[in-house]
Structure formats: structure tokens, C-alpha cells
Specification:
With about 130 residues, the protein is of the alpha+beta class. It is about 25% helix and about 50% strand. The longest helix has 17 residues. This is DUF4440 domain-containing protein.
């Protein structure tokens, strides 16, 4: 089992890469078969997730990953937290807070993000959101 610090470091690296739109870092942090389910039910694969940044369609002014709880199960972990963002997507305001569930797996000795699922919180954050 990994140390809690390894998973906390992974979470920090992921959030920093998302804030910067760093496709090189995200490419290394996401599994090859990464899947994202967005807050309105759309599904994106790894290429589509990275292309939002590569194309310039998505730009963050702020990106947070807070109130995170992580449970580890052997070579996998489930993280649940609140993603906050001040962002522009395809020229439109995309600010908001989302409850996010992450599936993190160990691949060749390193943690990678295999899947995320986002749910809108109605603009609220915190346990009641």
C-alpha cells in the first residue's frame, strides 16, 4: 500500500497540471484508456480531455481540488472532493464547483488517473453542496 503522501502528491500534481493546461504533464498522469464523465453526462477519452487544452478551448484562471478524501484498495484508490474553477471554455464562462470522483490506479509503480466523474454542485461548495 502506498503512503498517503504519495496520493496527496499525485493529487497536487494533477491539479497544478489542470490549472496550467499542461498537456505533457497530464499525458503522463492519465492512463492511456482514461475516461471522463462530465457534469452534463458527456464522455471524453484521454485525447479529447487533452485536446481541450491543446486547442486553447479551455483556459483556467483558477483551479482548486479541495475537501478531498482518498481511500486506497491495493493498487487502486478512490478520491472524492470538490473541484473549483474560474475558467473560459470556447469563449464562454465556465466557472463553477463540481463534486468529483476520481479512480486512481497504480501502473508500473506510478499512480495514474483512470477515470473521473463530475457532478455540478449548483455553484455551492462544501459538505452541503
Amino acid at each position: 500500500m502506498a503512503h498517503d503522501q504519495e496520493l496527496a502528491d499525485f493529487a497536487r500534481q494533477w491539479a497544478e497540471a489542470e490549472l496550467r493546461g499542461d498537456t505533457v504533464a497530464l499525458d503522463a498522469l492519465l492512463t492511456d484508456d482514461f475516461t471522463a464523465v462530465g457534469p452534463h453526462g458527456f464522455v471524453r477519452d484521454k485525447k479529447q480531455w487533452l485536446d481541450r487544452y491543446a486547442s486553447g478551448a479551455l483556459v483556467h484562471d483558477a483551479f482548486t481540488w479541495d475537501e478531498v478524501t482518498i481511500r486506497q484498495y491495493g493498487g487502486a484508490a478512490v478520491a472524492v472532493g470538490v473541484q473549483g474553477q474560474q475558467s473560459i471554455y470556447e469563449g464562454r464562462d465556465a466557472d463553477g464547483y463540481f463534486r468529483m470522483t476520481q479512480m486512481i490506479v497504480e501502473v508500473d509503480g506510478a499512480w495514474e488517473l483512470a477515470a473521473v466523474h463530475l457532478s455540478p454542485t449548483g455553484g455551492r461548495r462544501g459538505p452541503e453542496a
